[in-house]
Each structure stands twice: as structure tokens, then as C-alpha cells.
Fold this protein.
Amino acid sequence: MNNKRLTSFIGFLAFVCVVASCKSLPDAGSLPDTPIKRTPTVATQRGMLDVKQASQLLSKRWSNATADLKGLAVLEEQATGVPLIPGNKVTLLFDGPATMRDMMNAARAATTSINLETYIFDQDPVGLEFADVLIAKRREGVVVNIMADGVGTLATPKEFFERLRAAGVNVLIFNPVDPTKRPGKWQLNNRDHRKIMIVDGKIGFTGGINISETYANSSLFRSKKRASTADHSKIGWRDTHIRIEGPAVATLQWAFIDNWVRQDAGDLPRVDYFPRLAPAGDKVMRVLATSPDRDSEIYKSLMIAMNESSKSIHITSAYFVPDQQIVDSLIAAAKRGVDVKLVLPGVSDHQLIKYAGHAFYEQLLAGGVKIFQLQVAVLHAKTAVIDGIWSTIGSANIDRRSFIHNYELNVVVLDPAFAREMESAFNEDLRHSRQVTLEQWRQRPWKDRLKELAGRLAEYWI
């Protein structure tokens, strides 16, 4: 969301939240802390495995993991109600250029269907190229369905989507800003913040990257120019996405179709959206697709992983405005000897959100949490790796809006080898970040403190 979109959105939300009660996050005290069984539930396309089969599969997949991994997986299942999915290949995409290239190449190879769900779809060189690929595939007979958020696309000309529709692409604007476009079901405060693409029901993409030149501008790992708040267009954006092959792709597909149906948008064109998916790799994962009418499963998952951590919590967060329970969990982990490090924005495209997050710095630093600010790129990634075994990537920011009001999708990968890749990316971020110390922070200017106060007052709405 750029500043123009944010300003418009905040105006609407101020009105919405005056007339609607504010929803709260789950009570951390009610989260499970003792596994009720020894083996987590494992789902396959043929159904749930029995306990013996699940135990054998996980023992094989997690042969080099710590003994605590099964217990963590069970607790997470108890909190979210979502089973594990084995047999996946997961490819980490470190930045916008790599992601856009891989996504467009996958789309070009499509033979039956392309389902794309995104918050932003801009009319810029990247957006136009992506649209051209989708139009070309539709002309070849591939079914193409696009779902883009009504607020995220406020700055995108209507003519851009009309061109796609004229070519036979099915376009749905999710929860449009104009209440007459969805009479009786207007839900301005609930935004579709997911970023998903599924090709032929066999290849899935998800993470933090929208369809926009902004996110594909350049990458942290290529840009040597230091960031400044003056001109974001001349520096890289740091983001993370993943490519998934295997049985978990069906869950992404289901999340897309479920959101389409929620909008009463009519039936999707008939095509085989759910082909049989053979195992493509050895990664065991959980797909958390949340919505405002659910119970904040992404939040619960993160809280469980942090509360159970014994070695490390490494979080990279673009928009970090935690509730007090997250702050308390991070501090409690640091006090029991866990290495808690946060990579947060040194430069941000949203100053109010940045200062809202800054309001928590002193408490976190005093509690032993180490904070680093990325200096060479605008940070947009939403990732975490905990204890070298639990990793998450997705669209959800660490803020109330993501956990309560948005439609979000995160994946959790329970795998030591993948966690090592995540740690490598985190360490690369650290190399380009500046540590914030408590002594230094306490000397910040008063004008910054006033901005933090303003950010705290507005945090629920942003």
C-alpha cells in the first residue's frame, strides 16, 4: 500500500471504527502449553494418516531434528486446528526480481488454469507485462481468474482491468470501496491482503510481494546504494516469497476458491483445479489461511512458536506494531536465554506505521530483545525462523490489522534444512542493518517521541 492508498484508507477506517466495535486478539493465556497427544495430524490427498503412519512419516522427515519438534507441531495444531501436509518442495525466493521472473515463467507454461490473488495489481511496466502474459495464456485457452483488493487497487485505472476482462480474463475486485457495488455486504474494514498464485493446480506461490514495479524494483542482495527516505524509487525493496510444489498447493487453491465464493462472484469456469498431486519433496508444512471471521490462527501460531522457543527467535517484519502479548512473549524468551533478534525497517514507505512500532522499542530493548534496522532497502518482508526448525513466510504483518481484519495467508515450514536457508537470509539482512541500543534510543529527539505517540493512538486503524 503506497502513501496515496494509505491516506485514503485511513479516512475510511476512521469512520468505520467509530461505528463498529474493535475486535481483540486471542488471550495468550488460553493458548495450549501441553501437548494432548504425541503425534500431530498429517493430511494427504487421500485423507488423514493414522497415528502410526503419521509417526513413521514424521520420524523419517524429522530424523535430524530436535525432540521438541513434534511437541511444537502438536501445540500449533491444538491452537489452530490445521493439520500438517507432507511431501512438498519449497523454494525460497529472496526478492522481487526473482519472484516476478519465476511467477511469470510459471504462468507462461500454464496449460489449464492460473488463479491470482493479490492486494495490489499496478498499471506499471511490471503490471503490464504480467497482464500481457495472462492475456496471452487466456488466448491459448487457459482459464485465468484474478482477485485483487478494492483498496489495494484504488490507484489502478479501471481501464487496466477492463482490458483484462475484454480478453476473457475473469477479474474480481474484492470488497470494493463503493458500497453500491456490494449492497448489503459492504465490508470496507476487511481487506484481502493475500498474495497467491496457483498454476494448473500444481505450482503455488505466496509471500509478501504484490504485482507492482515497486516490489520488483531491485533487491537488497543486488543494491549497494544506501536507502534514504527521499526517493524510494532509486533503492531496492527487501521482500520474500516462496514457490511450492506438492500436496500443499491444493490448500492454496482451496483458499483462493473459498475467497472467490465469499464474494458471491458467481461460479468459476469449469476446469480441473484440483489435479492429483504426488509428493514433490520432503518438506512438511502447514498452510494458515485466515479471515476476519476466524480466530487469528496466524497470530496463535506465532505466539506458540515464540512461547516454546529455547534457542532463537529471528523475525524480519516490515510493519511491526505488536500487541502487548507479543512484546511480553519476546521479552520472556530473551530473559530465559533465547537469542531474540528483530530486523525492522530503517527506512519505511509508511512513516506513521514506523513510528507506531518505534513506541515499543524501549520496552523491548530493556527486556533484552535485540533490534536491528535495515539500512539498504525498503523492508517489506514478513518472515520468522525460530529454533532453527520453525519458519513462516506470508502476507501477514505483525499488527492488529493483519491478525484481525485482513484476509491473510502464511505458510509454516517445519524443517531444519529450510530453516537454515531462512537463517542465511536473516543473516544477510543483519549484515546490512544497524543495531539499535537502549542507550542510543533513550537519547532520541522529542519530536520522534511525539510521532510515536501519534502512531500508538492510530495503531488499531493502520
